[in-house]
């Protein structure tokens, strides 16, 4: 069985440095055009150097790709998987150039984000549009796979990670469950989704995913907070921050916390630094028990999920979803989901 109308799968991700000399060039790619002070870049670079200048994200993606390839092969599907990044090698432009040279005409794209919003969805559309422009008139058609935050396999994988984290704390009483996701500017969240929807698709999807996971894990009380803010202090971002929230939990008498990074699909640097280091250290300072739940990407069901999303396109498999949110994110050649959907903020003229 072939890829049924598709020549390949392009695994599209953020990218990360793979050695000390890569760190600053990578950060410069990430922040290009945003006017981020060099002092801030050096501060973030220290986080990477703490891990030898290597982000785990590329290895995690390669491991997930291998698992998907294995499942595709077992299903008799001949659909090679190719890796491309926005900010570091292998760059998506280079990957698409190679696919174009090989004669690929139609390619599925799996973006490594489960949600909507500018950074979580529309920026991947921009990556696709940019890579096709670089590849020239013979570039293949690129069909982006939909958002999957409410897919049963994603929800069950995150819920099992949450249960395991709670079990690791034993009999600590009154442990609080806290879901985290990457913070974004309030203006970006307000602009997320089609204009007629009223905005805040990103934060509403995060809240819905947390509700679904908590229900599956049998948890009735939980919080949704944010992490990894990177903007200037005068710009409002989604709050509260996870570290501030741990302070508030301690002040209210909570003796333990389990953190589930539901907004992320893998344990990359923002997870292991912001949660396993900063949040864990703050909890330890307060004498609070702390456990961090695994992300979905390390669970075997994640590869199963990706293959099922592929089969929606190759075999007409009906989409499975657990929320009333409309299925979104599936677009062609970098088009947005709708006119004005997740419109990027206009930067002030200099």
UniProtKB/TrEMBL annotation:
<dbReference type="GO" id="GO:0004325">
    <property type="term" value="F:ferrochelatase activity"/>
</dbReference>
<feature type="binding site">
    <location>
        <position position="182"/>
    </location>
    <ligand>
        <name>Fe(2+)</name>
    </ligand>
</feature>
<keyword id="KW-0408">Iron</keyword>
<dbReference type="GO" id="GO:0006783">
    <property type="term" value="P:heme biosynthetic process"/>
</dbReference>
<dbReference type="GO" id="GO:0005737">
    <property type="term" value="C:cytoplasm"/>
</dbReference>
<comment type="similarity">
    <text>Belongs to the ferrochelatase family.</text>
</comment>
<dbReference type="GO" id="GO:0046872">
    <property type="term" value="F:metal ion binding"/>
</dbReference>
<protein>
    <recommendedName>
        <fullName>Coproporphyrin III ferrochelatase</fullName>
        <ecNumber>4.99.1.9</ecNumber>
    </recommendedName>
</protein>
<keyword id="KW-0350">Heme biosynthesis</keyword>
<dbReference type="InterPro" id="IPR033659">
    <property type="entry name" value="Ferrochelatase_N"/>
</dbReference>
<keyword id="KW-0627">Porphyrin biosynthesis</keyword>
<comment type="function">
    <text>Involved in coproporphyrin-dependent heme b biosynthesis. Catalyzes the insertion of ferrous iron into coproporphyrin III to form Fe-coproporphyrin III.</text>
</comment>
<feature type="binding site">
    <location>
        <position position="124"/>
    </location>
    <ligand>
        <name>Fe-coproporphyrin III</name>
    </ligand>
</feature>
<dbReference type="InterPro" id="IPR033644">
    <property type="entry name" value="Ferrochelatase_C"/>
</dbReference>
<feature type="binding site">
    <location>
        <position position="270"/>
    </location>
    <ligand>
        <name>Fe(2+)</name>
    </ligand>
</feature>
<dbReference type="InterPro" id="IPR001015">
    <property type="entry name" value="Ferrochelatase"/>
</dbReference>
<keyword id="KW-0963">Cytoplasm</keyword>
<comment type="pathway">
    <text>Porphyrin-containing compound metabolism; protoheme biosynthesis.</text>
</comment>
<keyword id="KW-0479">Metal-binding</keyword>
<feature type="binding site">
    <location>
        <position position="55"/>
    </location>
    <ligand>
        <name>Fe-coproporphyrin III</name>
    </ligand>
</feature>
<keyword id="KW-0456">Lyase</keyword>
<dbReference type="Pfam" id="PF00762">
    <property type="entry name" value="Ferrochelatase"/>
</dbReference>
